């Protein structure tokens, strides 16, 4: 018995209406001229404490950090915290910096400047930037994203005038099923400019740990458990950065600054196309109904029965002779 071709057609339909693309799914580049001047973030840090002095912009993935005007780049979210043990000073720049050094524009930039220097104060910085799927490139803002590459470029949080020792590190961030994860791989961001990328099998075998930036911007890798993670259904990517503590060494004016020059992600996005699916399913269902009606009307069974009756009659007639 031959199988109905409509089932095969149905699966072919489902395969066709799912479009698969391997592409750049997110791309922030400082050189894209998102603004024509320094523009402050939409929200700013608030000061608290009296030693240590703490400046905090609480994490949010619902209220954007990206400027609400004067900025044409992708929306981004996050939060950050700077502390100083003895000097009452916090962030002096929280902005898209249009003329930041080196010779690039529009960095995501944080800076803490103190005219009298930071000598004798213990300092720390913790923060995170998030880029959500709704702000991915066109064609990747819906559907299931399978991540296959992450890269970024930065300007280190160092002071060229001083002799500080830094352990300033970054970790990659992904979000899956409303849970944020940090990579086991840490990237040194200390006191210089640099870039980092990871993709393909190396990214696929990366280890991750669940992380809640709402609970704390300070991440303790020693208390974390890292394990493999299937990087499908990714709904956000980003960067976590921190330095738990360093000693200020300058008695004169000194600034610490950290800028994200670029951040990019590549991946595969599967997007169902409802209009195409509806048309194919409608055609397939009509074909199935028509095929069933034809099978009910076929004379094959009646021919077999009539032939059998004719044979019986011939046998009876022969017996009477």
Descriptive overview:
This protein is of the alpha+beta class. It folds into 2 domains: about 5-10 and about 275-320, no CATH class; about 20-270. Helices cover about 20% and strands about 40% of the residues. The protein contains 4 helices and 16 strands. The chain has helices spanning about 5-15, 200-205, 275-295, 300-320, and strands at about 20-30, 40, 45-50, 55-60, 75-85, 95, 105-115, 120-130, 145-155, 170-175, 180-190, 195-200, 205-210, 225-230, 235-245, 255-270. The strands form 2 sheets. A 9-stranded antiparallel sheet has the order 3-4-5-8-15-10-11-13-14, with no helix packed on it. Strands 1, 2, 6, 7, 9, 12 and 16 form a 7-stranded antiparallel sheet that branches. Strand 3 and strand 4 form a beta hairpin.
Give the helices and strands, then pairings.
Elements: H1 5-16, E1 18-29, E2 39-40, E3 46-48, E4 53-60, E5 77-84, E6 93-97, E7 107-114, E8 122-132, E9 144-155, E10 169-176, E11 179-188, E12 193-199, H2 200-204, E13 207-211, E14 227-228, E15 234-247, E16 254-272, H3 274-297, H4 300-320
Antiparallel strand pairs: 1-16, 2-6, 3-4, 4-5, 5-8, 6-7, 7-16, 8-15, 9-12, 9-16, 10-11, 10-15, 11-13, 13-14
